[in-house]
Write a structure and sequence with these properties.
- The structure is a single chain.
- This protein is mostly beta strands.
- 10% of the residues lie in helices and 50% in strands.
- Strands 8-7-6-5-4-3-2-1-14-13-12-11-10-9 form a 14-stranded antiparallel sheet, covered by helices on one side.
């Protein structure tokens, strides 16, 4: 995948909808710092994948504010049985996004059976007519890319369109995934907000949010050069609360798919920004 698991962090970085927010600009102040823990299980797999079982845990921590920038700490650990061999995959990422300055910093590490497979580190700047990326890992280099959005900026645009009644949204996004030197092309479908339905698998774990409505959202990610002409490299569906908390995830990598059920949710201290 592109890396699909790193792309989860993109979609979580600022995920929210704004049915009651008066403007997209104010939407930033309604992103709630929180830590969410999800149990992962194999939903289905194609025979060619060789995967007979998979389970794990995902931890997502979102902190910060519009004035000080947003930080995401993310860890995704799975144990799988592939061709009769047990394998433990551990993906860790940290990002920082300054939405005012148009700056994005990223660092990720991928381990297999506790051995480091890949490390990516760098930062990017939005110069409006292009994105510039300076990489330190896996090798030092500078890259210029087509204009695109960083994760929080992307979600604010999605929020604005959702509030106006648009249910389909396309955008090019840079998140530092893969080798940190390319953008991904995304298509997003946002459904009508719904309340808790019978059989919701993890509604109780949402605590005080349990009775709140959620947006059903599906985001597909494509290699940027293929755009929508090819199949997505990765697709994720989830239920999204208006404050940015998500639950009932389905992560489809093509040859296999995982479910992610919210099992623990903690709200973290918030920062109040002074008027500017």
């Amino acid at each position: 995948m592109i890396s699909g698991r790193n792309l989860i962090a993109i979609s979580f970085a600022s995920l929210m909808a704004s049915a009651g927010l008066p403007s997209a600009a104010q939407a930033l102040s309604n992103l709630v710092p929180h830590r969410a823990v999800y149990n992962l299980e194999l939903k289905d797999s194609a025979e060619k994948s060789g995967i007979t079982s998979m389970n794990g845990r995902m931890v997502y921590e979102f902190t910060g504010s519009e004035c000080e920038g947003y930080k995401v700490n993310f860890r995704f650990v799975t144990q799988s049985d592939v061709g009769g061999e047990k394998r433990v995959s551990d993906q860790q990422s940290m990002t920082f996004e300054d939405t005012r300055a148009g700056r994005f910093e990223f660092e990720s590490k991928s381990y297999t059976d506790e051995r480091l497979d890949k490390e990516v580190q760098g930062h990017a700047e939005d110069l409006k007519d292009k994105l510039t990326v300076e990489l330190m890992e896996p090798s030092e280099k500078q890259v210029e890319l087509q204009p695109g959005r960083f994760p929080t900026e992307h979600m604010l645009e999605l929020i604005k369109r959702a509030r106006s009644g648009e249910h389909f949204f396309e955008a090019r996004v840079f998140d530092g995934s893969d080798n940190g030197d390319k953008t991904v092309y995304t298509t997003t479908i946002v459904g009508t907000p719904v309340g808790v339905l019978p059989g919701d698998p993890d509604a109780d774990s949402a605590g005080k949010l349990k009775t709140e409505k959620t947006w059903p959202v599906t985001i597909a990610y494509f290699n940027d050069d293929e755009k929508v002409d090819g199949l997505p490299t990765y697709r994720m569906s989830f239920k999204l609360y208006e404050n940015g908390v998500s639950r009932d995830l389905t992560m489809d990598y093509g040859d296999f798919a995982l479910t992610g059920r919210l099992v623990k949710l903690d709200f973290l201290p918030e920062t109040t920004c002074l008027p500017h």
